[in-house]
Task: structure prediction
Amino acid sequence: MQQKEDPATVSAVRPPTILLLEEDAASRHRLTVQLQLLHYGVTQLASLEDALRVRVPPRTVAALLGVRAVSARLTEAIQRLDEFCPVIVLTEFETAGQTPPAGAAGILLQPVAPAHLSDALDQVIESRAARTINAFMENPDMNPHKHSPELSDEVRSKSFTLSFDSMPTMEQVKDAYIERMLAAHGGNREAAARAMGISARNLYRHIADKRASRAAAANMQAAKQELV
Result:
């Protein structure tokens, strides 16, 4: 099995990783550069056989599979990788009105514009995160750390429930879940994002948006008090 990890992923704080299978060298290079510019690390897969055997890195948030034709082997690879992360199929054939192969989260026509690739990755990663949150809501006693092998036994053994004074909105449940996950990981945003199945970039964006909303609310409250 040939598994090559891009040097950009080797750093003190490793970025979220994308698995990439693309046989064409020019397309592989273009996609790798695009992903790096989007602040993702890249783990390259040599073949569908590789995808069936690869040890998926803990920080993996999505897989991109370039294919020339749909096959039983492709379906097996998608189903296997989907256990760890959402899968997007890349094709050179027209995708308008085309249904993604079984198990795939999406399908993109190559060459993919950087903005389109970024939007597609954000969508499938957020969709997987929503599934994780919904599963947690249906079973609040589940251990959200069971798929995080890098966590200590003390943190891994913890489970928690969310409690509210009244019926919460989905946004409140989401915020409470994220806050609890951050607390469980000692404020480490990268580790919390990995445990929730989302990219660290999306978690940072969520936190920034929340801070901006709270600041705006505080300013509005202060303005109201001045008028009294």
Observations:
- Strands lie at 3-5, 17-21, 41-45, 60-66, 87-91, 106-109.
- The helical segments are 25-37, 48-53, 72-81, 114-138, 153-156, 170-184, 189-196, 200-227.
- The mean pLDDT is 75.
